[in-house]
Amino acid sequence: xxxxDKGETVKGDMYLARSSDDGILKRAENGGVVTSLLKFALxxxxxxxxxxxxxxxDNRYDGIPVLISDPEEVITTAGSLxxxxxxxxxxxxxxxxxxxxxxxxVVGKPCDIRGIIELVKREQIKLDNLFLIGLNxxxxxxxxxxxxxxxxxxxxxxxxxxxxxxxDDKLIIRLRDGxxxxxxxxxxxxxxxxxxxxxxxxxxxxxxxxxIACGKWGVPNNKKTTFVxxxxxxxxxxxxxxxxxxxxxxxxxxxxxxxxxxxxxxxAIDSALRWxxxxxxxxxxxxIEEKFDYWWKQFGQCxxxxxxxxxxxxxxxxxxxxxxxxxxxxxGEVPPNAMFPVLRTAHVMDSCVNCGQCQDVCPxxxxxxxxxFMLNKKLSDVFKYQPGMDVESLPPIRSVTxxxxxxxxxxxxx
Length: 414
Ligand SMILES: Cc1cc2nc3c(=O)[nH]c(=O)nc-3n(C[C@H](O)[C@H](O)[C@H](O)COP(=O)(O)OP(=O)(O)OC[C@H]3O[C@@H](n4cnc5c(N)ncnc54)[C@H](O)[C@@H]3O)c2cc1C
Ligand code: SF4
Ligand code: SF4
Ligand code: SF4
What we know:
- The protein is an alpha/beta fold.
- The chain has 17 helices and eleven strands.
- A hairpin with a 4-residue loop joins β7 (170-175) and β8 (180-184).
- It starts with a helix and ends in a 9-residue tail after the last helix.
């Protein structure tokens, strides 16, 4: 039995939903449910502010996280930006004091929500003060790569693009004059264009660890509808009250819509697993000597800017062991000694959420996310721990016993 029959929503229920506000519906990516929920949460004072993402001016390649407390302003954040990779977990932790004193509704992709959950476990963010509104995700493009892809592969002016989308392994751009252009992702990515490499490998596509998961998969023909899955009691309450107050119109998703969504998710996961194999196999299959040479050369380019540490949602120590005063990494030593990458990798590899932020910021182009996520997958296989999925489940390296680490068959090598 679904929501409408009982007059209430239930965790796990799925809906096809639309905003009742024509203005929101016009600007929104799909049914405007995300923007309507944000507006409802602010107007009913359930939250003090909302955290969303918007383009700076008209520039779709220059996205910023925004904190909004005026309900009328929320509409400016409607729509999906596929070339924006802002760091929402760090934004909440660093600039909003971990939401310890503020109630927030936060919108994020699966890796954003997973990063937040890992920071909650480390007591850097207060979950009780958050409504997490997750977006399904097939991937993002680095702004610079996106511009290059649009010029060189689509023959278009990046500033003429008013929308982009990823559907059925294709990258679609919509131009100001109403035309659409499409290119195959596999072909583009084979040439070094397209999505960030962590996104190609990402296998968490529907953020069921959030309070509500919103997306387009499963929506029949009419694009102006959002497919919603209610994922927690908190999400249930917010969604139900927004429906009652007339902000959103819903119908239960039928079996066909649910099947279609599941099919799309599975195709995206299968593609991610193929990318993982393609990226990891060459590294995994090297001899020990080759591995050592390869990574030594990579980290020999490190300029010790600390960008990877500062971007990573998992790095949170106030007294970081990589600082010069801790005596492990010497001041002025560039590249730093091997303890720098070894310690950083060891500190985060059990909880890496594959957000790619470390690799995006590295000025030396070191494939950091590839290394750390590869190790994380290995640990996940051993400990059956997938980071960022469940706030109750603690990172294995902190909770594992010596006996477990020395069990036959448990090998944690690069
Ligand atoms: C990069 C990306 C890829 C996506 N891929 C898929 C997919 O493959 N399958 C699928 O079913 N759905 C996908 N979605 C979700 C879909 O595009 C819609 O966001 C979702 O259906 C909600 O629609 P809406 O009209 O209710 O949202 P709206 O009311 O339009 O609100 C959109 C919200 O998304 C936020 N937002 C926009 N860009 C970003 C960003 N880069 N990072 C974080 N937040 C952002 C805005 O701040 C706004 O709050 C993707 C979304 C994004 C951002
Ligand atoms: S890592 Fe996954 S969730 Fe994050 S932007 Fe890429 S595809 Fe989306
Ligand atoms: S190690 Fe890199 S990819 Fe993994 S969580 Fe940290 S920043 Fe993200
Ligand atoms: S971001 Fe790159 S260059 Fe900077 S400290 Fe990390 S590995 Fe070194």
